[in-house]
Design a protein that fits this description.
By secondary structure, the chain is α/β, with parallel strands linked by helices. The chain has 3 domains: 38-185 and 363-550, Rossmann fold, CATH 3.40.50; 186-357, Domain 2, N(10)-formyltetrahydrofolate synthetase (2-Layer Sandwich); 566-647, Formyltetrahydrofolate synthetase, domain 3 (Roll). It is built from 23 helices and 27 strands. The strands form 7 sheets. Strands 2, 3, 4, 5, 6, 7, 15, 16, 17, 19, 20 and 21 form a 12-stranded mixed β-sheet that branches. A 4-stranded mixed β-sheet has the order 22-24-25-23. It has a 3-stranded antiparallel β-sheet with strand order 8-13-14, with no helix packed on it. It starts with a strand and ends with a strand. The model is unreliable at 3-25 (pLDDT under 50).
Amino acid sequence: GARRGGAAPRRGAAAPVRAAVSEPTETKQAGYLQRKKEQDAKGFTRKKLSKLASPTPSDIAIAQACVPNKIKFVAEAYGLTEDDYELYGKYKAKINLDVRDSLKHRGAGYYVVVAGITPTPLGEGKSTTTIGLCQALGAHMDKEVVACIRQPSMGPTFGIKGGAAGGGYSQVVPMEEMNLHLTGDIHAIGAANNLLAAAIDTRVFHEKTQSAEALFRRLCPTKKDGTQFFAGSMFRRLKKLGIDKTDPSELTEEERAAFAKLNIDDDKITWRRVLDVNDRFLRGITVGQNATEKGHSRETGFDITVASEIMACLAMTTSLADMRERLGAMVVATDTSGDPVTADDLGLGGALTVLMQDSMRPTLMQTLEGTATLVHAGPFANIASGNSSVIADQVGLVMVGDGGFVITEAGFGADIGLEKFVNLKCRSSGLKPNAAVIVATIRALKLHGGGPPVKPGQRLDNAYTDENTDMVTAGCANLVRHIQNTKAFGIPVIIAINSFPTDTPAELEIVRLASIAAGAEDAVVCSHHSQGGAGAVALGMAVDKVCQANSAATDFKMLYPGELSVKEKITKIAVDLYRAGGVEFSEKAEEQIAMFTKQGFGHLPVCMAKTQYSFSHEADLKGAPEGFTLPVGEVRLSAGAGFIVVLVGAFPTIPGLPTRPQYYEIDVDVVTGKIVGLS
């Protein structure tokens, strides 16, 4: 199963998930089948879909026709007791983190990551393949399996892309609940993020409008007995300043001033506000324009909530103690002396952790065929870390135990989501994947082979529906590049060819042969969108075979060591994975890299923020380009999350709405209360 390696666990980390001594796979499988029989008697059904409609109905029509199991039965089927979860209605539950300890005697399952080739704006069915594969393994192959996927942002849900619960007969249900508010984790992140933003501007305002002594008196008020006191959260700043006194009255005048005045440089406040909506007009704003702010205005902007560093902390953390440290360590600004100012300097690390405490637990849901899904964290892959949480993967691995499978999804193409899965997520967790599934479509390969532009809401050109083997052959250069990059991490690759009705046998065979020639272990045509798990059984068999052959994952490796400089890490990704000829750093990026390195953050890995539609920075540069110069326009520090974000070119961190957004389709039947038009 999954093996540990790489960097040591972070501070406050929970006991790592390890493959422990456990009963033989045959015995465990027999135990699983017995539990499955018992659960069937209680009303739980891990069912093979039947009576599939053709043509395939809309996603929401299929989802609403499904009668899901009550989630408590799904939990019990995986050996969870009522003490291991908290119900959120009939079909969702939050899983307690201590199951990682109570179930560790089972060992850890195989660890499989799903990524894709460079997509079209329509998406190539990566989430659908993740769910279809899990349905195949669980409902059709009698394996224990858990899917780990991200919580969808409502920005894309109401914008262009739609939801992220899968599609067709390979979905997570109820899809309406997953694609909208779920259990409120994204809302909690927004509240925590914006509380911190408010605290920063308010602190700057108060420091500019009163003396250090007056500010100290207000920060350390006098009790009825005449004594002053520090709040518990203040001792972290005192420790940072080297002050070990616990009585405010004992501080010298100089110590009181150092404690009270953060001296934040207005021009170097990096923390931005967030909301979970695609609103391009908030990319740049001015705050503090009301007369009550006495002229203390400044320029700032909004990001989409899933790009918040707090979301990244949630995705990377391993325990509540670790989350507390990460949130407190987030750098929000630089002071006038050039030193970092953190959330703990503002006394806010504890309050942020309180807001995020419930969100620490993954949400248990189910697929159409009754297999378990853990939904947790939702960082975008093009502007953030792009993977579901370390915690969800750890929980899933012990839920399935030895011989089972955790299928975790990485966002967009393998150059983005899978690269971050390796260099950020696995570096933090120490887990090693046993296999990678890369999803490809004939449609995307034709686009990379010279096909006309693909635009949401517009009819596909005939080039994508008529047979064109030359275009597919040319487009396979993109697929080959992704296979090569993934194999460079020491991960064996299986290609899942997500088939469409217009694909021809000749086109599909070209992709299969090109994949094998490039070093893939197998290439399998899948039809899970129209057939559910039955359409991904061949893929499941290929994954099972590869995982058994690579059970120790001994060849897995990172792309770069931590001791490289920030610029060297960026260049390594650009040249080795993107095949750029070099990197051009803007003057602003050079200054930021120098500052972060001086502040002691040069050892952190890097998180590239760039277009998902090309290996390069130019979305229209398709196929497998090489030799281009990659422009780095800006660099941001995510000290709590544990990486440095690199913005390639002028890359926006909050999307905009298209001319015809998805929200035109979404409504509610006021008689039945059912949602319509969600996709």
